[in-house]
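Re: weekly structure request thread

Next one in the queue (179 aa):
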Amino acid sequence: MGDHDDLRKFIADLAVVHGRVVLSSGREADWYVDLRRVTLHHQAAPLVGRVLLDLTHDWEYDAVGGLTLGADPVALSMLHAAAPTGRALDAFVVRKAGKAHGLQRRIEGPEVAGRRVLAVEDTSTTGGSVLTAVEALREAGAEVVGVAVIVDRGAGDAVRAAGLPYRAAYTLADLGLVA
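Done, posted below.
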């Protein structure tokens, strides 16, 4: 099996939780994909980085990140997966709101102004979180080249409607789930 198949197995085994839940979008579902169980797992996290780098191999960007908390381990996995290949890839964190103390930055990490960046998320239903990050990145002067997620729960249309290329490593159908 390759990285893509191995990561799908981790998602199916560790992240898919059955039971009534309320999603961040406010929608209710009979199951939940808790990708932090995968993105923070010692064996699965490296796969996340490699799979998403492969998914976006033809996009030019030199920094990756998104809205905290879902995007943070995804971006770090990509940063670490890129390093052994000689690729210089920085990561950043977009806060939900600017800090009222310290440097009062909304985007933490290396400067994104004037850079081509990739916005990521672990999973997205409406696109709200990743589009919030995109807005903050654009306000900071970054050029957002696209959006990539591990699992798409339906956000693709909203992201594309905002004028951004969108890719997902897995769909719900890939995981045997029905929306």
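The beta strands are 16-22, 28-33, 63-67, 90-94, 107-108, 116-124, 143-152, 166-171. The chain has one domain: 45-175.
Next request, please.
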